[in-house]
Queue: 4 jobs
Job 1
Amino acid sequence: MKKTISLMLVAMFAIAMVITGCKKYDEGPTMSLASKKGRVVGQWQLEQVLYNGIAQPVDPDWANETMEYKKDNTWTYTNPSGSMSGTWDFGDKKETIISTFTFSGISSSDTTTIIRLKSKEFWTKDVSGADTYEYHYKAK
């Protein structure tokens, strides 16, 4: 009986270690049955911006801005003034997203770090010098 209880405790401990080890992004989720691409694809609306960990006032115009990632690895950003589009792909073991676009004949790319990726939440982080920006999106 003691041996059975000991084996159960060891098994539970091992399972707990595997589950916590599966966490890819800083803010979660711990596990997901949906693929990472399946969770990124969709329309996203900016909900909150943090600058060096401090929430910034939310501009009401953000309600009219949409970022859409598509299955064919293209993206479109739309706001009341117009839109921009390009291509995207995962980078660095699917911990970053690399977005490319062409504007006035000049190609450019941007890399952002994913810190949370759920079916209804998508958080990214960008570091510029000593400044950190977090962008929290919700599914539209």
Job 2
Amino acid sequence: MAVYTVHEPRPRRNEDAAPPERYAFVRDGFYVWAFLLGPLWMLWHRLWLVFVLYLVTVGALEAAMWALGLSGTVKFAVMVLIAILVGCEAGTLRRFSLRRWTERGIVVADGPEEAERRFFDRRPGGRVVPAQAAPPAGPPAQPGPGPVSPHQDVIGLFPQPQPRP
């Protein structure tokens, strides 16, 4: 099962909330296509700023390796390590491109369709609720130490809860 982060875009001028079709579900994990074809993957997902930063970084590394006179094997190894890094951090790169969107939650599912279904099914009425309509959250309840029964298993060094000095 994969973990997906859910991102909601800003509503357009004539909308109270963004429609569910515009939500983005970003999988966390290794992206094989980002590893194999990093720059093309970035362009496919419209990660323009990430693509430019990638080109600048790789160009600077290539120039530094050329200036140091490193062998072709070392240059290849560095490029493979960069490809592995891009494959591992591809989800983070996509989230970076959605930095102006609102993160609405995390969903664990087998695929993107199931993630969408789970996310929207747990909403009240199965519909998207605008952020303004959410009730204000009150102060969190302060759980106090409850009584410990003598038959309860104790984990730790102190069998009874004691107040802090």
Job 3
Amino acid sequence: MGLVRLLVSLAVLFTVAILISCSSTAGGNTVIPNYSMGERAPAGQLIFIVFENRWIPQIGAGTTARIPANRFFLLRLSIVNSGSTEAIAPPLTLIDDSGQRFQELTDGDGIPQWIGYLRRVKPADTLTGNIVFDVPARHYKLEVGDDADDKKALIDIPLSFNTDQVNVPQAPGGTTTPMPAPLAPK
């Protein structure tokens, strides 16, 4: 009697597990979980956290300045390897509300604390720094993932304009007042 109950229980659990796994796919497409900026976004053995976003009109100054086609968009993030083997954090992609995809730039020259384009993360290690895109100012989701596990997640990046501050002298007296940095003309 006890063996029959055990077998029936195992059969029921197996059936429930199959139904749950089938319900998470629609037409063969896996549902990609969504997270907010600041939340931990696990994708396979990698965990991504986006801390900050910043739009910048150019990188550098003078004749050597890098000018974007649209705007440079920096994301400060961390990538944690929660696995027991080394992982490669693949290049990341921004997706706008219409589904258009933008790849991160391969050249981080002049980007403060750039974490590189090809990133190896040792077990139980964390990479923290900036990645950069050249994109129009819009609302985006950052697609992150672990290509080895084929697991993906989306991180919602709200549209905001955080700019650097520059000091501009006021009228007589020479005191300065912080003012938003001017945006480069399009």
Job 4
Amino acid sequence: MTKLREIFESLGFTDVATFIASGNVIFRSRSASTRALEKKIETALERSLGFDVATLIRSTTELAAIVGFDAFPGSVTPASTLYVGLLKTAPDDVTREKVRALSAPNDEFRVEGRELYWLCHTRMMQSIASGALLEKTVGTRATFRNVSTLRKLAAQYCE
């Protein structure tokens, strides 16, 4: 995580911090272009680390909306786990239906904007779904986080 923080600082970002060992990096930038920032970071990470790293940026406002969104009203139980896939781009309606069609008794899916919400009613290892399958279905780069991690991020960084 130290190397990751150093890479972001070398790009001129300020207030750089990493959050748990999950690849989450918090930073400030003067740029308002998410796409330009993602490309700049991806290029630097590939150059520094030697492999392609999908970079998916969300503002604190977007993060607060993600953790505040109730994608599955009344369906979350103590035995289920909610994952959020941060997508590179928002899928079209046809792709949203493909994602929804993956739903099964143990897995529910919903796309909202650039997020794919996955409610897993069993252990992830027993699920028919995987991050790779979901990324292929939506046709865009994605990274998945347990909503608990996102809530901790929001509690620490969102006002």
